[in-house]
Amino acid sequence: MNTRKHLITTALSVTLLGSALALAPTAGAAGYPNQNWARTSGNSAGVVFHPYGDQFEIWDNVHDASATWVAYNYKGVNDSWKRVGRVVDGHQTVSHNLYESINGKRAYIYFEVCDTVKGCSKASWYRTWGS
Question: CA angle 39-59-51, nearest 5°?
């Protein structure tokens, strides 16, 4: 490939990639989206996190008698993930007290929704403070 054609192809690739990134949710550490929700493939289960009140709205959208829960971990803290809530075939809102700051810095969590059939969603991250 000659140099001119290579430069044009590279410039076009960068432009297309930039357009795609502008449409995607804001990505944080390790490429996780910064959003207050997550869902499994096929939307069999979902969660919306509300930092004001530390509430997780959990949905199990498939009536199959299998459990759905949320797993979370604090961003920047190297420990095991924690489970919160459990719903079977329906919806439940769970309040779970979370830290708003860790070592004097505002806290964020990674979280995902899991069910026993589809497994876990891709993780999202969001703030634990504010309304």
Answer: 75
Q: What is the pLDDT of residue 102?
A: 96
Helix (H, G, I), strand (E, B) or coil at 22: helix
Which two tokens mark 120?
């876990």
Enumerate residues 6+ apart whose C-beta is below 8 A from 40.
46, 113, 114, 115, 118, 119, 120, 121
| Interatomic CA distance for residues 30 and 108, integer angstroms | 14
Q: Which residues of the chain fall short of a pLDDT of 70?
A: 1-30
Query: Rounded distance, CA 96 to CA 93, Å?
Result: 10
Task: Report CA torsion sign: 127, 128, 129, 131.
Answer: positive
Identify the pLDDT of residue 28: 54
The half-sphere exposure of 108 on its side-chain side, counting CA atoms within 13 A, is 15
